[in-house]
Each structure stands twice: as structure tokens, then as C-alpha cells.
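seq as requested:
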Amino acid sequence: MAATSSAATDGMAVAAALRSVLHRASQAAERSGRSPDKVKVVAVSKTKPVSVIRQVYDASHRSFGENYVQELIEKAPQLPDDVEWHFIGNLQSNKVKPLLTGVPNLTMVESVDDEKIANHLDRVVGTLGRKPLKVLVQVNTSGEISKYGVEPSGCVELAKHVNLRCPNLMFSGLMTIGMLDYSSTPENFKTLINCRTDVCKALGIGEDQCELSMGMSADFEQAIEMGSTIVRVGSTIFGAREYPKKQTN
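C-alpha cells:
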């Protein structure tokens, strides 16, 4: 009984945290002169069990993000089909087919950072006969070697490659992670905004056709105020990450 009561309490806490984040996101959108429905909150459930994700789902949320392919393909079949999964981690070529076959309701890959991975995604989506997959080009706006992402100077060419040479992919915008501690500065956001301006001009599309995925738990309100359309919020909704302890032999 105690365990059940604790789980129920945890569920209420997660649902309350989600409501708080959605409210804060809505207010930030209004401060930027936009409708709240123009901003998507992706609940990043990395390391969290399916039971906790389900509590957020039961609070009527549908957009979730995962960083690791294996974790996502284990979780996705245990959750309803109407979950919109975003893959937001670094994607290796040998993981593309398992990801696409294991997660039929994968909505978007936010981390395309070179032509090789774009080409591989394009081939596998075509082979599987899936509808075109939405992708974002990941841009390294902080200049840190440890970060994945194309350099800002290369974002236009990669976006053009996806748009023109990958018929099974749908170029949908740009993503950045920010600094080493996963926070961002206004300069990081400004860099991505400038990239969007260049990309939209090169592709001949409106800025409303180019998502900006920027902002995480520490800075999502500032990101929204500066124009973000997708924010990736994990610990503020789910609590601290729960990494397994290393086994000792």
C-alpha cells in the first residue's frame, strides 16, 4: 500500500511539474508576441522508466524526447501509438535502421549534423516505405569541440542537401544544444536565429516553415522569448536523471 501511495504521489508531482512548465512556456510565448500553440514542449524522458513517462502521458502530454536509440526502442512499444517521439541525441549510422523499425511513431530526428547521416536516414526511410521523416539540422553554436553539430558556416549547405537530395526526409528546421552545461547564452540563440535567416533565404522558404529547437530546462523561457518553437525540457518535469551505478566485478 505504501509503495502504491508513493507512486501516486510521484505521479501527481510529475503532472504538476508538467503543468508548471507548460504554463511558463505559454507565458513566455505571449511575452514574445506569439500564440502559445506556436511553441512545442518536448518532455525529455532520458533515463526515466515507462511508468513515469506514462504519468506525463496521462496528463494529456504527447511530445517526448529521447537521447539514446536503445532506450527509445525499448520504451516506445510500451507506450501508446499516439506518442510523438523526438530523437534528440547523436545518431550513428548503424543505429538508424533499428531506430526507424523499432519506433514506427518516430515524429522527428532533431540531430542531423552531416550529409552521411542524412543520406543514411533517407535510404532507410525509403526502404521501409515510411512517410517522409521530419528532421532538424543540428548546429554547434557554442564552438565547443565536445558538441555535435555542423558549424554555423555549414548549416546552409547541409540544409540544402537535406531539402534537395533527400526525398524521404522533410527539412523542418534547426536545433542547438548550447554550452557544455547544457545551458545556453543569448549569443547561442542569436547564432541559431541568424542561421535560420540564411537557410530560409537559401531555400526560399518562410521563417514559419523553419523550426528553432533551442532551450532546455535551465533556459527554455528565454529561448521562447527569443523565438524558439521547440523546447526540450527534462529534469524540470521529471526530476534529476537516474543513471545506473557502474557494476563492479
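The longest strand covers residues 106-112.
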